[in-house]
Amino acid sequence: MDVPHIPKVFSQGIWCPQCDERSTPRTCADPFAVCFVCASDHRFYISATYPVSSETEKASALRVPVAKSASEAEAAHYWLTNSQARDHLNPQLAQLLRQFVEHRALSYEPEFNWCPACGRPLLPFEQPDVWVQGLACENGHEFAARGGHINGSLGGERISLLSEYSAKALQSVVGGWLKPNPLLAPQMHATVRDILEHYASGQAATV
Ligand SMILES: [Zn+2]
Ligand SMILES: [Zn+2]
Predict the structure, then answer these.
(1) Ion ligand 1: residues, Cβ under 5 Å
(2) Is pTM, for the whole model, over 0.90?
(3) Is residue 2 part of a domain?
(4) For residue range 110-168, what is the model confidence (pLDDT) as tens digits?
(5) Residue 3 included in any domain
(6) Which residues pair with 145 in a beta bridge?
């Protein structure tokens, strides 16, 4: 697992897609992600390259050196920071673990209202892919939005930004992972399931 590459156009920071303030890069609980945060604490991420599903499917069978006595936070820290473990960690689970460790459960739904590259409004436009929402600014920066991600290409580089889950979305995504599902089961190690169950049973504070 490699640390993420910051595209040139984002090297000095981005315009916050939520509120249009300047957002600067900073480290976070996930060493394989770069967080951009604005003065209002809206956080958007560039993630590391995602492991393919043939690798994440090996997660449940991995031998994991997490002590039985380890807290959920310690186990989550191990999964997020250990490079070999990350090679097998489903990216959605990685995002959940990061939000648990950072106590982030948003009271609002994050939105891509402003172009991260130039700060102009992002408006929907017609495009042929029914699975994504096309968003563009007046400077011709175009993105495809889907499920809390925007993807695009700027200055010859691929751009991908990820928002955080709201408290409501977290509840639904965690619930999905905890339901019996033969497709998802191989992707989740028992220690990760414990963390999700601990989280699902607790009352998360929203920010
Ligand atoms: Zn903001
Ligand atoms: Zn733009």
Answers:
(1) 16, 18-19, 21, 38, 40, 42
(2) yes
(3) no
(4) 999 999 999 999 999 998 999 999 999 999 999 999 989 999 998 889 889 999 999 99
(5) no
(6) 133, 150
